Amino acid sequence: xxxxxxxxxxxxxxGIPTPFHISTIKNVSKSEEGDYVYLRTNLNVPGTxxxxxxxxxxxxxxxxxxxxxxxxxxxxxxxxVPAMHLNNAxxxxxxxxxxFKQYENEKKEMEDVxxxxxxxxxxxxxxxxxxxxxxxxxxxxxxVIGTLEAHSNGFRFHNTHGGNVDVIYSTIRHAFFxxxxxxxxIMLHFYLKHPIMIGKKKTYHICFYTEVGEIMTDxxxxxxxxxxxDIEAEHAEREMRQKLKGAFKKLH
Length: 252
Known about the structure:
Elements: E1 2-3, E2 8-13, E3 16-21, E4 25-33, E5 36-43, E6 66-72, H1 83-109, E7 129-136, E8 146-150, E9 154-159, E10 164-168, E11 172-178, E12 185-198, E13 201-211, H2 227-251
Antiparallel strand pairs: 1-2, 2-3, 4-5, 5-6, 7-8, 7-13, 8-9, 9-10, 11-12, 12-13
């Protein structure tokens, strides 16, 4: 019998139902020989590499290393196949093991993630902000535009879908500014002292950026009818780049 809720396997020991937590089970295997199905369970015991000391309060006690159950594959008078119970137990144990290992991996992954202090929102109207930015890593599966604001003790980025990312000033180890000189992106990049969670991702790096424009050169162009438009477009892009650099530097 498998207790999914408590992640335990109930095994009869001398006729007494005894629970074994899934973490004490090293592996489980199933085999067929003739008319019988065998379910073999190997347990973690003191002295093995995977065994955790906290599970064994008394290492001098007697421990079971292996338990094997056998069941018949022939139908009974009621039409039931006894081996189905072992097959079902084997499947559920594997599912619980997979779920528990995933939980342990996520827990280990989150060990160095710290909870940031609460962002102190500046209530005045003159909060420095940059609009029409993107965040990397993405807050969701798709790239969504948003606004970056500088408050009393940290930055807040909020996108049009309602997602927020807070970066407290004291958690920033290094801050990098990439201007848009000869670049298609203008960017603020923060390298953090401790990782934070963005969506379901743990990251030390977070950047806020926007695309300035495309850098194109047509070497085969011979007509002069569009020269004026090209010059005006280049002038407008130059002004936009200067304006963006000024806005980013002000926030930085």
